[in-house]
Structure formats: structure tokens, C-alpha cells
Amino acid sequence: MTEGNNKAGSKALAAGVLVVVALAIVGAGVWFVLGPGSGSGVEEAQASQNPANEATPAHAIEAALGAAASYRSSEEFAKAEAVLRAAVEEHVEDQGLRLAYAEVLMDLQKTEQAYEQYEAALAIGPRDPQIEFNAGTLAMAVGNPERALEHYSMARTAEPGSAQIALYLGAVQHQLGMQSEAKASLLAAIQLDESSAEASSMLAQIYLDENDGEVALSFIRKAREAEPAQVAHRILEARILRRLNKPDEALTLLMALPEGDLYQPMVLELCSASMGLLNQRAEAAALYERAMELNPGEPEYAFQAAQWHERAGNTERAAELARRASMMGHEQAKAMADRLAEG
Known about the structure:
Oligomer: single chain
């Protein structure tokens, strides 16, 4: 396995990790592109590793990699796994085989086993920063952020000019509550790549958590400038504006969303809360009624509409909607309906 193949395949693991932190940290994407191979079955592939007992170990490894690549190209992942498992058992100190085996294990969603192969590959060496980065991503995928921190830190030390590594290190530091370290890593990511919306967004969240709304606002606006279509950035900016006691600006920002994004629980909650601060209770009720029309099977929207109608003084409509939500199984709505009926 060449260094070029390692780096090309490794780009895949970075596709979705940031989630964990409200962004959540990565999933997999494009995997290793192994060399061409042939073979119609596991037995043939294994036999081809040592025809007439004359092939060298290097030939056997290339044959296994080629056969596995052929199987993967036709999505016969179990056969590819069998070939590479046997090859790894025979050539335990070959890093390329370990990495290729890990990729096939990921094809089969055997993430914990894939991570074990990455750890073995790193122990064999060399500790390439991209391999270290992939190991960190897999560590996050199996729920071990402490190990991910170690891997990302090693990768960052080895390749300080990588904005991606700095970003992912900052993300896991943030998740582990290492906020000072996370700020340093995320600022480094921005210095290395000014268009890093993810780094700016995470910094905005960190500063919001620290109740520094003005700094948070500057970072989230930088993120929105880089990714204007990203709804999550708009939602975070609205939360920051509310913290800064600017509900009118928050509401304007959110109400500009397309209907498919506007009538989502988190957005509705932010909009209605801003409307409440602006004494627009009837408008908040109407917003939830529209959500109710679009999602007739969701009792929570009917319940929220009932609550806002009551706050607006429209108890008759509030009682009607509370009964509706109650009939759909909403426990709080039942108590509300009973209370309004008595009054």
C-alpha cells in the first residue's frame, strides 16, 4: 500500500465527525482504492497468494489486496473480508494489509474491529498523520473520545499545517470540556483555512456557553458568510441574538427560512419564544397552528398552539386545541383541557 493510496483513502473518514458536538464528529465516505485484482472465489484468491509455493510474501500481499479490491468493486464484502483476514493472519506486520482490512470491516459496519486494525497499523508504523487522524475518527465512531483526543493530538503534532486536523482536534476537545484548548485549536483551524465555517460555528457555541454573546455573534456571522445555506448556523445566530435581548432580529432571521425548515420543533420554539418577548402571542399561536396543519399527526403542535392561544386570551380556541391534542395521547394537553373545561 503506497503512501498516496493511504492519503487518498483516508479522506473518507472525515466526512461527518462534527456532529458529536452539536455537529457531531465524522462518518465514512470514500475509502481506500485498492489496486486491480481478479479471482472468482475466496479459495482461488488464497491459492493465488502462493502458486507452486514460489511467490514471495510481497507477491502474496499484492494478490490478497487485488482480490479484495475485485470483491469490493462488486460489493462482495464478506469475500473481501475473508481474503484480507487470512492475509493479515499470515502477514501480521504488514501495515497496508491492516489498513485495507479496516476499510472492508467498515464496509460491513464492523467499526470496532476496524478501529482495532487501525491501532495495530499504527503500532506497526510508520505513524503517518493521516492514519492517526483516521484512527481518531474511528475512535469517535466507537464512542471513545479520549482515545480520539490522543490520535488527533498526535496527528496535529505531526502535521501542524492541516486545518482539518486542527478542526477535529478542537471538536473533540470541546466535547471533552477542554474549552481553552478547543478555542486554540479552532482558531488555528481558521488561521489555516479562513473559510472553515465549522470552526467558526463551534467557537460561536463555546462563547455562547460562556455567555459572551458579542464574540459568539461575530463568529457565527463568519460561519454564515462561509455557508449561507446552512440552517444550523442561522439557528445558532438566532439563539445568540435572543441571549443578547434582540428577539426582533432573531425572529426576522428565522422567519426568512423556507417552510420546510421553519416548521421544525427547534425553529418553532425559537420563533415562538421571540414572539412572546415581543408580545406577539396570537402570532405564535398561528405559527403553531400552521405547523399543526402541515403535521396533523403530531400532538405537540396542537398543544403548543393551545398554550399560546391561552396566553393570548383566546381560551375557547385553547380549550379546543387542548382537547384535540389530548385525544391524540398528549398527557399535558389532557390536564390543560380538563383545567380549561372547569374554568
